[in-house]
Amino acid sequence: MSNTRIKQVKARQIYDSRANPTVEVDVILESGVMGRGLVPSGASTGKHEAVELRDNDPQKLGGKSVLTAVKNVNEIIGPKLIGLDALDQAFIDNLLLEIDGTPNKAKMGANAILGVSMATAWAAANSQNIPLYRYLGGSNARTLPVPMIQIIGGGKHANGSIDIQDYLVVPVGAQTFTEGIEMVINVYHATRKVFAEQGKPVSVADEGGFWPTFTSNTEGLDLLVAGIEKAGYKPGKDIAIALDIASSHFYEDGKYCFSLENCKMSAEEFADILVSWVDKYPIISIEDGMAEDDWEGWKVLTKKMNSRIQLVGDDLFVTNINRIKRGLAEGVGNGVLIKLNQIGTLTETMQAIELTKNAGYLPIVSARSGETEDAIIVHLAIATGAGQLKVGSVARSERGAKWNECIRIEEELGEMGIYPGKELFERVIKRS
After folding, report:
1. What is the CA radius of gyration of the chain?
2. Exposed site from 130, 151, 364, 374, fewest CB < 10 Å?
3. 107 catalytically annotated
4. Domains of the chain: residue spans and CATH
């Protein structure tokens, strides 16, 4: 055990894909082996997420600096971890919660805590000279995720240019992960051509998808179907559509307010709109179809969808076991978006995935709009057999780093690897 004892914990301020400060942590073991965790950050954040600690000093990087979180790691958290065994991830993560002592990690900062948790896992895996997915998941870690990939980015990912946040595609007809990525890249480039043919500027949003200039929210759906067909695929059979509605951002005074269409809708009226889209377009998944605290609206939407698609809670659940349990008890949705920095430790995240799977819901491991080159979410998805991975688009290197890591792992797994494809969704979708 002496070789895997923690010798040093060191944090620093670095920058994410949106040029915002974030936390990076190194955990160095007695053996000299190191693990490094780079913490992501979201733009479209739910109010129930764990607290991302920023300095709020307008004189430093617009108030976004994370020097307090860095100091918390270097001066408070780190010294308490010296001598502990990095192989005991759950013990260390629990200690991090005790050091913070708040229900939402507001004292130390979830970004400080997560950086340490991630770095510890990397160090432990490196010390055993095995991939992180194998260290976390054991011999059963062999299910590659079905990618959910942004082609058009709206909402807060595109400065509120349209209401819907993400128009994504899912390569349900692929037989392997590598084939799925190739299919999506073909759709990405074909959609670029459709944008150009329609005289739309080909700008890029936060997560690498195309920046929309639409007159209606359904224009994005029409354009995406055109992109799928232009790439030579059949919508629904080869490539399905997924939407991240992010409806909390346009929920005001009990109404859902589309700025593009200049209309205000009740939960029932908005649910009917979403159902009509599912009737018309090859949509297989909708995320955050109702607002984060509109539990009654979620019940309405779940009932109206009647298990026709994957219905995912992100802001609703925020990777929090207590909120997931409430969702299960109230029978809303059938999928849970999983984000490390929503909850703050690797152990809590894995517990959330386990709870989701055991309940018969589908987990989707997800990146954030402010990302880094750290590929830990790929290993997390494979280690837990989550089955789905949402990283943003296929453009931009912080996104490509994750997809490329999946390709490498699929090659490493060889014939032992499993790509679930469309069959994965049949666990929650009832055939009509």
Report:
1. 21
2. 130
3. no
4. 2-129 (3.30.390.10), 138-427 (3.20.20.120)
